[in-house]
Input
Amino acid sequence: MTNIQDVAKLAKVAPITVSRVINNSGYVSDKTRKRVEGAIAELGYVPNMLGPSLRFKQTMSIAAMVTDITNPFWTTVTRGIEDVASANGYLTILCNSDESEEKQALYLETLLQRQIDGILLVPASNDSASIKRILNQKIPLVVLDREVQNVAVDVVRADSQEGAYLLTKHLLALGHRHIAMLAGPKSTSTSVDRVTGYLHALEEAGIEPNDDLIYWDAYTQEAGYRNAKRVINSALCPTAIFAANNFIAIGTIQALKDQELCVPDDMSIVAVDDIPPTYSLEPFLTVAAQPAKEMGRVAAELLLDRIKNEEDKPPQSIILDITMIIRSSSGKNLKR
Amino acid sequence: MTNIQDVAKLAKVAPITVSRVINNSGYVSDKTRKRVEGAIAELGYVPNMLGPSLRFKQTMSIAAMVTDITNPFWTTVTRGIEDVASANGYLTILCNSDESEEKQALYLETLLQRQIDGILLVPASNDSASIKRILNQKIPLVVLDREVQNVAVDVVRADSQEGAYLLTKHLLALGHRHIAMLAGPKSTSTSVDRVTGYLHALEEAGIEPNDDLIYWDAYTQEAGYRNAKRVINSALCPTAIFAANNFIAIGTIQALKDQELCVPDDMSIVAVDDIPPTYSLEPFLTVAAQPAKEMGRVAAELLLDRIKNEEDKPPQSIILDITMIIRSSSGKNLKR
DNA sequence: TTGTATGCGTTATCAG
DNA sequence: CTGATAACGCATACAA
Output
């Protein structure tokens, strides 16, 4: 591999002169510059950024650690991150934690050793140990989507509580009085927030919340399927189901179909998270859509800001607005 | 930032001894080891891999350059890549070219400067200049999904021609005689292959191909929509549409819906590329599914093999089988 | 079993 | 305008 010395030798100058030509820094006479440029072209020289990286402690790369890139929400968030990173000359390293604390910890350790300039993290759990480890090393870190306990750290997330509140109010306005809540895990802040928003709307409407209508479970299709079946057979006869995320919503729809129940004729559904327009041939779900791409962008911008500005300002929480999209899934079945 | 010297000083040993403890190499007495480990823990020392990277010319990172990660096919391919990379201790750098030759060239240049160990590339165009540039620098490169002209390079792709052949044969067996082909761009090998497979099946069935039934255009939803409308109004009265990829298929379905035509009662559809099961609430398209995850995995494995084994074996083309999935979209409408 | 010297590629600093 | 020197952090080769 040809290095700056080879170029210098061929152009009969010192290495530093080659450096000056490449970086347009300092003074170089036109004659010398041309000779150097000729040598660079002749040798096909490519500067090795590892040298400066080692010296100046910046690798111009950030990491995006999500639970799973194949979840379309994270795909879009990641795209937003990459957009901002590449526009600023940063490379984006992609990490999937698969919700595993262990895999996450392993990845974070590697990232530290590679001297990554900053990390965008969707925490695999609400255990703050990994996060503290990063912060101790003074590596800028922005948490995505979820709040974490016991650490002061930048967070960029959507307003789950408000979204859930609005969706629930929407159902209430349509006349629903028994609304089942298929929530995510109790350990995830978004899930708790969504239940809180749901409860808030009920209380405001003077409706006594019923714990038996709240199904805490995973954010998965299977959980949605499983609990929707329970809802169908529930003695409380709910007329609407609130799915805490898109996967739960899809499981719910499948369960209803299996029982030959129609949406919204037999049951109304609302959900947090939209389904990407590309893939839903018949968009009909009423949803509170989270701004995925914007979340990625905003978080990446905050991270780059932290990287560039050494002074440690206090951590901030950026809370993005969700968008209500009212479609056909949430009404019409109140004869029941 | 604390370095190996700080640890050495605290443990009262030479830096190399610390190195030996970390890497479990050479002899270190238990007593010394413990002292060193204590010092590492006390200082929260994290080894800086940039040193060895510079010295040994390997960064343990590969790049995955796709056209757009938000295309679910590439999402899944990328996941396969990341699986293999992380299992082998490599980091995956994510790049989106957005089908822009310029963006691709810019990214590749950066990757070269960062001393990336290898590159997985979905070429933005069939211009081989970028690829030659990489190969000249002796950086292992594996091309994904598409063949490129005028360069000998490793390629991992699916058998588009065979997939198109089988889909077309399926339509022919159902009795269709006028099958419109909504193809991708003429400049992309997959698109050409799919048309070739289509033509092959027609010829085999003794049907005269008609150029007016072939619509070369982009691999996008818009193109699918646009050309499906033309097909509907075509004097040739096709009874089936072959969508060359999933986006074209979705555009086609939308166009049919807009005209209040039903699939498959008024028009049959088949497509290459499946729609991720998670998001199609009612899977009904007959498709030739490409093994996306496997494609990523196989390509990453080939790349790592090239990285580890210096000797340059001749480039190879790995062609993966597609899977026919026959659903309801392809029959029933032959009264027309 | 432990340690010394050296070099990977680059650029800031200071000197000419 | 150009150049010599040094330093970033680590592990190999060699020495003790």
About this structure: The radius of gyration of chain A is 26 Å. The first helix of chain A runs from residue 4 to 11. Chain A has a mean pLDDT of 92.
